[in-house]
Design goal:
The chain is about 45% helix and about 10% strand. The protein is α/β, with parallel strands linked by helices.
Length: about 220
């Protein structure tokens, strides 16, 4: 079993791309483990990735540098802000600045960072209203069903799903089950991803192709 494990590991490492440098210092045999690594190198500390993931990251970076995404004009934004105020949920200056930046920059990928309780949900609700009232569509993605329920409050009239369901659909054997909302993504779509630190399964390289080929915006 040990030899089989070593053979499988060696095969996988042949396909992998190392992210950590091996120690360049020559270590005597007395200071090496049975697998040949230095005793001064922490076990299981080496990181690897794949060509597919690196290519996906390159596409995401390239996509993030683009500024040709859909925007909405000041009138549509002003109407959404007035509606929020009329509904008893006015935005403070910081929230207004956030929404304005997201809907007017044209950037294909944007990141909004704010502490818990700072009103991100209220801001996203106004953003979603402005976006849909101007003819666009909104899709929300969250890492869990509970988070998806919270996000639905921010995107009334939009479609909300979990990142896991999308990741599963993007697996080679799940492509036929791509959600309908994913098939309808176009240049009028903005995708709001909450808690983007969630780590997707290995299918994620295909998701970068989905967004870029559909010309959507992500925030």
């Amino acid at each position: 079993m040990g030899k089989l494990t070593d053979a499988v590991t060696a095969q996988v490492l042949d396909w992998a791309v190392p992210l950590t440098r091996a120690d360049q210092v020559e270590v005597p045999d007395a200071l090496r483990r049975s697998d040949g690594t230095s005793v001064y190198e922490p076990k299981h500390a080496r990181l690897y990735t794949t060509i597919e993931v690196l290519e996906a990251e390159e596409r995401i970076v390239e996509y993030a540098l683009r500024r040709d995404g859909r925007t909405i004009d000041d009138t549509a934004l002003a109407l959404a802000l007035l509606e929020a105020e009329a509904n008893g949920q006015p935005l403070n200056p910081g929230q207004e600045e956030l929404v304005a930046a997201l809907v007017s920059s044209g950037q294909r990928v944007q990141l909004a960072i704010a502490p818990a309780g700072s009103g991100k949900t209220t801001a996203m609700r106004t953003l979603a209203r402005a976006w849909t009232d101007s003819g666009g569509t909104v899709i929300g993605l969250a890492p869990s069903a509970v988070a998806a329920d919270e996000l639905r409050a921010a995107v009334p009239g939009g479609t909300v799903d979990t990142l896991a369901s999308l990741a599963y659909a993007l697996l080679p054997n799940g492509a036929a089950h791509l959600p309908r909302w994913a098939e309808r993504i176009d240049d009028g779509t903005i995708v709001l991803v909450t808690r983007p630190g969630w780590r997707a399964p290995p299918s994620s390289p295909r998701s970068s192709t989905l967004w870029s080929s559909a010309a959507a915006r992500s925030a």
